[in-house]
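Exercise 3.2. Students should predict the tertiary structure of the chain below and write it as structure tokens, then compare their answer with the key that follows.

Predict this chain's 3D structure.
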Amino acid sequence: MAEFLEKLFSLAGKTVLVTGASRGIGHALAGACAAAGGQVYAMARSRSTPAFAGGSVSYKSCDITDGKKLADLCEQMANSHGSIDVLVNCVGVSLGPDPDGQMNAFEETVAVNLTASYRLMLAVYPHMRTKGGSIINLSSLASRFGMPQNPGYVASKGGLAMLCKGLAVDWGPEGIRVNTIVPGYILTDMTQKSFDDPALRAERQARMILDRWGTPADLVGAVIFLASDASSYVTGADIVVDGG
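Answer key:
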């Protein structure tokens, strides 16, 4: 039984692309996928190569809004390994509201969180068609509830959640599963400012059944589940990891 479970949750023999992997959630998940046996390609905008603990991780600098470079890198990965088996998309920005009458922050947020994420999924799609694959997008509680003073983030994450459900329907016949993970408040560089505000931290923590903010490590189990054969009959789903 132990051997069966180890194989069920193993990523051995799978080529895994993790985006937004230079820091925070993406960095933690790239290392975890490598530790689970995957051949991991970590991608982010940063030109500095981050350190990853253990496993096989190759880092590529790429802004996923650059469609040509993104497609070229996906092609290189697939040529080296025969396919791309798993995509873990952790790219996301949160720019807040625009000044009155402007839309710059809204448009940039949607361009990264929704439009570029769709472009990324289209880039890996041809390399999953031959034997199927798993696409995992990191969404947000903002995809389910209104969040104050951040309309672009709410709109983009809500759109991403429904986009994934649509693609799950379209690509399911080819064996491509598309799911989202919905994190709660996870302590990262992006959320550090609100965590450091005692009143804001207390307000948010009061809503958490487990009475603590999450860490990137709290998302590892859900990602390995969706990336591995353990979730072979799961698609179009939102897995909420928010401490209740």
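Discussion points: The chain is about 40% helix and 15% strand. The mean pLDDT is 92.
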